[in-house]
Amino acid sequence: MDRYAIFVDAGYFFAAGAQAAFRQYVSRRQVTLKSSPAAMVTDLCSKAARIVDNLPLLRTYWYDATLGSRLTMEQSALAMLPGIKLRIGVLNNLGKQKGVDSLIVTDIIDLARNRAIADAVLMTGDEDLRVAVQVAQSFGVRVHLLGCGDLSRNMSEFLQMEADSVTTLEERWFASHLDINTEPLYSSGSSFYAPTSSSIIPNDDFIQDEESFNEAVGSSIDEILASVTYEQIQQLNQHFAYQTFVPTEYDRRLVGTISAKLNSRKLNPEEMRSLRTQFMQSVKSRSAKWMQTDEENNLA
Description:
CATH architecture of the largest domain: 3-Layer(aba) Sandwich
Strand order of the largest sheet: 5-4-3-1-6-7-8
Radius of gyration: 22 Å
């Protein structure tokens, strides 16, 4: 069938894309989308369409990994976009993706075998995916590699030899879509959180033995949401309209912050549920207030 699909290895996209945009190594935890996921995907599909002479797009497959069972905000937003299929592997303790390559190989081969696509645009640099390219081509599918920045450093030479074409996304494309998060997630035992002045150095003004759990929760939520932009609040609010879990980058920071305020005391399951529920309620409340303010300003 004369249509194509896009296959994106998110680990490669963010790592190689950040190197192209910022000319330095940036930890995956520090790389975020500058634009909305929808805007980035639209732009990516536009680039891919030119490679395949504007064939109809079947869908975009996005392959990523999680540490635990919770999706990040970006993963959740991508999963909800039309025409996107999110495939999730796992991250090991060293931050390495596991199971992602096999998902990509399976999808490409299945679509090729079933004659569902005529072309495949593959964004990866991993030589282990040569077998997917070879098998897809044996079914008559043309496979095009879409790389990031310096391909001599981040894409296997043997993988390039197998492909029907190789195209590079320029540095300015990634610079327009990627950003460096100034508050990276840090590890603290089993939790990850973005350190702040209050979570690194105990402050007697708010860490008191008599402080109740709910007071600690309230101050933790206010502290985190104080640094959240209007757009991020709206994205979180949209997330909670369809999902009942807190995205992992917020969840780890939330748990880490309140744990620090409670002298590193481990939270029990009931407290964890309460913490997450109050966070969701606070996000919805803040989103509603900001939207009301916008409406009042527009009417003024």
